[in-house]
Amino acid sequence: MKKYYDLLIKTYPFVEDEFITSKLWELNPDGIFEDDIQEAYHLYFSSKPNETEIKNLLDDLRINNYIAGCETSLNEFEEKNWNEEWEKNLRVIEVTDKIVIKPSYKEYNAKEDQIVLVIDPKMSFGTGEHATTQMMLKLIEKYIQPNDKVIDVGTGTGILAIAAIKLGAKFALALDNDEWVYENIIENLHNNNVSEKQCSVFIGTSDKIKDNDFDLLIANIQKNVLLELADDFRNKLLNATNKPARILLSGILSIDEKDIIKEYSNQNFKHIETIYQDEWCAIALQLNI
């Protein structure tokens, strides 16, 4: 049986703050759950987290007055408990009039022309609860074109790749560097009647993908990774069929929007629009070549 770790961080005061959550994601957990009952954050890991990194990050939050103090505890648990935790908290989400997300064990009576994405997250990020996922789905619905070839970098549960297929893409490549997500993505593909021919799963980094004819690249990942991969992302779109090629980015705090746009402008991307939700933003750009 696989073992996982639950890092409980109890902050004083406890506030469900998107900035604090974004900083906690820098510890690279497999998931974060904001526990209103215990007034704490749960960070889930598939391997034991680095205690020094945890201490340094929390010290930084305290020194900069984001929190007054905190307590931490680390517990080891089995895979089934992760799924039970998610099942207690997931809900049906109507992201737009067209797109609905639900776990497989929840009932939902779909309206005509609605796309219902059936997503069970397991150990993967991408439940639909987070603002960045919801904004990405809105942008995909707006900018997808018939027969697009799509690459979803940092796919997590595969939710964005699956949505792209459901919205008219001819093919999606779901890419993630975490080997734990593979079985979860395959399960979610089957739950949504998406074949592995329509959506291929690749475990590895984007530089291992040599195709350069994607029409749409989507990435809901951390700011520093988006900045680091800007050149690689541009290269993935150079021979797009549906020109101009488009790129949709999130995982970005609104205060970091200008940094992202500046870096991608240096790679010949034109800013189309930015949408906002809570303290987060999602950015649509197109490649000018």
Can you give a write-up of this model?
By secondary structure, this protein is α/β, with parallel strands linked by helices. It is built from 9 helices and 14 strands. The strands form 3 sheets. A 7-stranded mixed beta sheet has the order 10-9-8-11-12-14-13, sandwiched between helices. The chain has a 4-stranded antiparallel beta sheet with strand order 2-3-1-4. Strands 5-6-7 form a 3-stranded mixed beta sheet, with helices on one face. The N and C termini lie far apart (about 50 Å).
Helical residue percent?
25-40%
The oligomeric state of the chains shown is: single chain
Query: Radius of gyration, Cα only, in angstroms?
Result: 19 Å
Number of H/I helices: 9
Strand-residue fraction?
A: 25-35%
Helices and strands in order:
Elements: E1 3-12, H1 18-24, E2 31-35, E3 40-45, H2 51-63, E4 69-78, H3 79-89, E5 93-94, E6 99-102, E7 115-118, H4 131-143, E8 149-153, H5 159-166, E9 171-176, H6 182-191, E10 199-203, E11 216-220, H7 223-228, H8 230-235, E12 246-253, H9 257-265, E13 269-277, E14 280-287
Q: What tags apply to this protein structure?
A:
single chain; 289 residues; alpha/beta; 7-stranded mixed sheet; 4-stranded antiparallel sheet; 9 helices
Please summarize what this structure is.
The protein has 289 residues and is an alpha/beta fold. The chain contains nine helices and 14 strands.
